[in-house]
C-alpha cells in the first residue's frame, strides 16, 4: 500500500520536472551581415534578440550564407523598435551587397485575437518591415510579403513568454 503511494508521488514529481523543462525554449536563427559572415541570434522569452556568436557558414548558393532572421513586435503593434531597426539595417546591407537575392517577409501573430484580425495584423507587420527595407535602399521588387496570422507559432504554449516569440516577421531568402 505504501509502495503505491510513493510510486504515484515519484511519477508526479517526474511529470512536473518534465513540464518545467519543456517550456518555451530559445529560438536560434541566423542572419548574414554585409561581409558574408553569419551571426547566430537567439531570442529570449521576452521577444528581444541578441547576438550570441559569429558563425562562418556556407549554406547558400556559391558558398554564400542565406539571409534569414526575425524581428519582434509589441502586443497589437506593427511598429518597429530600435532592436528591430538594427536587425533590418544589417539585412538591408546584406541585400544591397547581394542584388540577385529575393526575400519574403512572413508576418506572424500570437494566438490572441480572431483569425481575420491576426491575418491583417501579420500583413501590417510584414508591410512595416518591407517599407523599412525599401527606405534603406532595397529594391521593392525583390521583396514579397505574406501574413500567416497565428497559423505558424514558434512557441505553442500560452503566456507572455510564448506570445512574444510568436509576434514576429520572418525574413526568408528565396
Write the layout of secondary structure elements.
Blueprint: H1 2-21, E1 27-32, E2 38-43, E3 49-55, E4 69-72, H2 82-97, E5 103-108, H3 115-135, E6 143-149, H4 160-166, E7 168-173
Describe this structure in words.
The structure is a single chain. With 174 residues, the chain is of the alpha+beta class. The protein is built from four helices and seven strands, in the order αββββαβαβαβ. The protein has helices spanning 2-21, 82-97, 115-135, 160-166, and strands spanning 27-32, 38-43, 49-55, 69-72, 103-108, 143-149, 168-173. The protein has a four-stranded mixed sheet. Strands 1-2-3 form a three-stranded antiparallel sheet, with helices on one face. It is elongated, with a radius of gyration of 19 Å.
- What strand order characterises the main sheet? 4-7-5-6
Q: Give the total of beta strands.
A: 7
Overall outline: elongated
The level of helicity is 25-40%
Along the chain, the helix and strand elements come as: HEEEEHEHEHE
Termini separation comes to: 63 Å
Quick one: biggest sheet?
4 strands, mixed
Assembly context of the chains: single chain
Amino acid at each position: 500500500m505504501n509502495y503505491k503511494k510513493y510510486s504515484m508521488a515519484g511519477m508526479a514529481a517526474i511529470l512536473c520536472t518534465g513540464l518545467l523543462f519543456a517550456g518555451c525554449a530559445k529560438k536560434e536563427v541566423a542572419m548574414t551581415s554585409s561581409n558574408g559572415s553569419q551571426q547566430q541570434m537567439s531570442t529570449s522569452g521576452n521577444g528581444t534578440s541578441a547576438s550570441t556568436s559569429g558563425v562562418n557558414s556556407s549554406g547558400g548558393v556559391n558558398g554564400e550564407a542565406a539571409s534569414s532572421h526575425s524581428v519582434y513586435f509589441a502586443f497589437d503593434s506593427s511598429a518597429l523598435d530600435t532592436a528591430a531597426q538594427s536587425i533590418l539595417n544589417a539585412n538591408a546591407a546584406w541585400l544591397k551587397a547581394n542584388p540577385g537575392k529575393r526575400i519574403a517577409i512572413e508576418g506572424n501573430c500570437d494566438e490572441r485575437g480572431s483569425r481575420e484580425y491576426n491575418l491583417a495584423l501579420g500583413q501590417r507587420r510584414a508591410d512595416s518591415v518591407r517599407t523599412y527595407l525599401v527606405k534603406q535602399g532595397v529594391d521593392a521588387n525583390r521583396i514579397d510579403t505574406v501574413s500567416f496570422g497565428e497559423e505558424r507559432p514558434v512557441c505553442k504554449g500560452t503566456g507572455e513568454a510564448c506570445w512574444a516569440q510568436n509576434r514576429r516577421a520572418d525574413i526568408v531568402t528565396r
